[in-house]
Amino acid sequence: MSRYKIHLLVCGGTGCHSSESNLVYEMLRDELERKGLEKDVQVIRTGCFGFCEKGPILKILPDNTFYTQVKPSDAKEIIDEHIIKGRRVYRLLYTDPETEEHVPDSKQMDFYKKQLRIALRNCGTIDPENIDESIARDAYQALGKALTEYTPSETIDLIKRSGLRGRGGAGFPTGLKWEIAAKNNADRKYVVCNADEGDPGAFMDRSILEGDPHSVLEAMAICGYCIGATKGLIYIRAEYPLAIKRLKIAIAQAQEYGLLGEHILGADFSFDVTLRYGAGAFVCGEETALIHSMEGKRGEPSNKPPFPAQSGYLGKPTNVNNVETLANIPAIILKGAEWFSSIGTERSKGTKVFALAGKINNVGLIEVPMGITLREIIYEIGGGVKNGKKFKAVQTGGPSGGCLTEKHLDTPIDYESLTAAGSMMGSGGMIVLDEDDCMVSVAKFYLGFIVDESCGKCAPCRIGNKRLHETLGKITAGKGTQDDIEKLRNLGSVIKDASLCGLGQTSPNPVLSTLDNFMEEYLEHVHDKKCRSGRCRDLLYYVISKEDCIGCMACKRVCPTHAISGEKKEAHVINQDVCIKCGACMEKCQFDAISLMNDYPRVSATAAQTITES
Amino acid sequence: MIELTIDNKKVWVEEGTTILKAARNAGVEIPTLCHFELCGMGIESKPGGCRICVVEVEGRRTLAPSCMTEAQHGMVIHTHNTRVLNARTTVLKLIISDHPLDCLVCAKSGQCELQNLAVQFGIRSQPYEGEQSRYRKDTSPSIIRNMDKCIMCRRCEMMCNEVQTVGALAAVNRGFMSVVAPAFEMNLEDSPCTYCGQCVSVCPTGALTEADHTNEVIRALSDPAKTVVVQTAPAVRAALGEEFGLPPGTLVTGKMATALRELGFDYVFDTDFSADLTIMEEGTELLQRLQRHLAGDPDVRLPILTSCCPGWVNFFEHNFPDLLDVPSTAKSPQQMFGAIAKSYFAEKIGVSRKDMIVVSIMPCLAKKYECQRNEFKVDGNPDVDYSISTRELAAFIKQANIDFLNLPDGDFDDPLGESSGAAVIFGNTGGVIEAACRTAYELYTGKTLEKVDFHVLRGMEGIRSATVDFDGLQLNIGIAHGLGNARKLLDEVKAGKSHYHAIEIMACPGGCIGGGGQPFHHGNSEILNKRVAAIYTEDKRKEIRKSHENPSIVRLYGEYLGKPGSHKAHSLLHTEYFPKSNEVWLMSQ
Asked: Is the confidence metric ipTM above 0.90 for this complex?
């Protein structure tokens, strides 16, 4: 890298890629060539920077300039101004939403200040398609260290001491998992990387695989060394074409360098990795379902025990780890267990990657130390709620998680405290909701996802979640009763208690947590037929203002269900029981006398009389 | 032994025992729904899907499915506290909420395990109403699939794939629309289904039922222009009584004959007669092939495989199309009967073929398909018009208001009603080959067989092998029941590694007595054992115990067929097999 004076890092993650970052990359190279600068300035396509809200991202080294929303047409100006004349292109610099000032150095950005990037250490820094760049950033050094300096059990011990826990959701101690797989004797064992990321809006694993595939391959080899496996399998969704492409390149390059294959680094250890594609079934992120899918069987979970560490892929002991978990491993081995365990809280060590989404200013991917509060994430890193709206809740843990409120904002984030608050760590989805969101509709959205993604094997999940979803639909349609709320509670608790796998056992969380934290919204929907956010269309009412209506009868004539009554030149009234909310009256009214209200219009006795008579 | 506590009781069980079995040992009954076990036959299905059998295990976060959770030392288990009962009732109500409540008109009413649970749980309301999963109804010659009633217990899937290795049924779709179906939800008729009916025999609800042909039989009986002849298979008499509350293993041959006569059949005959006929043809074929083999003829193929079982015939047509010359060409007893009834007997009584209706009572669902096969028709007129199962006959008798239990014993009519003990044992696994040995021994050695009971050929193991001494010639015999076991023997034949001279195969576990058309055993394998014993009892009671000594058979050959294997016998009593593709053809839309 040294022969170049300047490096232009163009984000090549899926998000920026879809906003033409590829063209930006091409244009920058063309422009440099035209100016004869290609020997002095290098353009690199990197993995994700995380700041997806403002993509495509272009970062310039060594001065750390952080350009956002770069278009291909900006390439010429960037080269002319920044590279040749040394003047920053101010209009492309990130602007702090609070101070409204340009931030020239990315290190000064609030988005990055509180982050600590371990799993994402190389994302946005290196060209993931070039193994030399990974190696320059210490890739495979941890593998070499483990192979030459540690025995498998010493390595496992180191991972155990680091306190690393599974990042896929359940938080099982990784070292212990390896130890169990290591202790089960068999002629063959397998290391499986679970890259079946499926939470709506989550892309932690995808970004790691796209930005730093070698960290995962290296960790799998280390795991293979520890548990006595020679074969690694990455189960990845076929919908991640870029990650698949980069993994394939990485595997081929690692094989070529002898970092995968026979007698790695001259040691008596062989390990290779192949890819298996998932068809995108959410439940295949559950390890037994994942294994069945890899075996060519229906992607559905089975009872545990036996655990995969006892009997997994093809009946052999199998260690399944999530992408993010694995990406931490090389760093732990190189920097030591004590370094890692010094980060985080007492029981949750290290960092966690979250995908920030929803009504938040800085949508994107962040990695933060455990123990940070939700408030810090949302208001400092995330830049607060969008459009100055009021914060209502944050949904963590994906569809199996729950909605946390204002009162939980100062909770330090770790596995235990999120669970205690009624949500969960999950794989790291974090969706911010504001005052415009209806919590009943949010619960319904997640249940809709679960209904689509349930494998259908066990009855509580297959039928129970369908019934939960239907009941929520009834409530949002204004047809709910108090009984329905009781039903949600009982059904929710039975589904949690009686379902076969982790999906079913957590699927009612969005309902149960909103019932706990937003009961008043449910009660409003049920008793007042009101949705305070105005999200539930069935709970909006067309109302004619007595003051503004001149009695022209235009609305009455256009109403397809004859819901409007009133004499000529007198104020008209809409019978809410008959109104189908088509909006034709409002469109027809010349006097802006008809409006949509989210309070059920309580009709006076005389008006009611008129309605009945008409 | 490990110790655990179930409902405050100390219980000691072997390590590896499930909580369900531990509880049952201790006299604690836990309700189950999807769990299914045919004890002693190695057949068990426990997907853990219904969640009816959940129990509370202290220290465990969620409830545990007792059918598949191993008991651990020191476990403290509660099988019916409020938490458990509420979960079970809620789950049952959920299952019922996705079930068409048409019990009054359901074929499974009274035998339905879901209905029984609803009664047991005292379900009186349905608070979880909502959409129900609906599927296309699939009608095949033997089996009707009404998957609206499927509760995803997956028993049929286990039977079809693990026990029978047929692979016609598997779970498809996801979530609420999950259902067990052939690939791409094609019709069963286009799938590799063999119609063995084992899926029907384990289905807890009315999702899988037989194609009911009782109405067609009633129509024939009420047509004065038709002479209606009925034949009853060996295994029917050993099970029909169960439908009327008689203990399993009660033989009701005489009552059955009377009942059939009361129902209006003109001639009540016995498939046992044609079973004897089958032995004459199949036994002769075996001896001929054997003698050619012993003489060093390289073109002769051994082993010879029995061909009485239509499920098995379908299975090898689908799965071993290159071995079609291995099974005997002899038709099954049902079809031999039909061929003889509509030729020899019809001529005898002066009735034209088209005015004769042949009905068979079978323990089997594949027989319904078999009788519709084109090669068993003459100018479009089938040799056997309708085949109804043991269950359909029982329902028919009840429908006709016949007091079955108090019927006097009747006899079969002549001449197609006379049979030997060798024919009766066709109902049991091992029975066909034992019957064949009784005749083949005498034909081969020219000596009288003194001890007709070949105990070496009996038993319930899935694959059995025995060597029978034919006066110095050691005949290696293989027996398999259940198509998965059959596949193993066939794979050996295909690989040229089979050391057998003859193999008997029956598609259903236990043989015909465990057929897909028999009264439901609900997983009680003792019922199958008692049926087997009853069949051997009937054999023992017979004066004639060898097929070739059946006087009606001797007369049939004398008057009509000539010798076994004669040209006439061949055209009436032998058939050929057709390769069936297992490939899936996707119709282009």
From this structure: yes
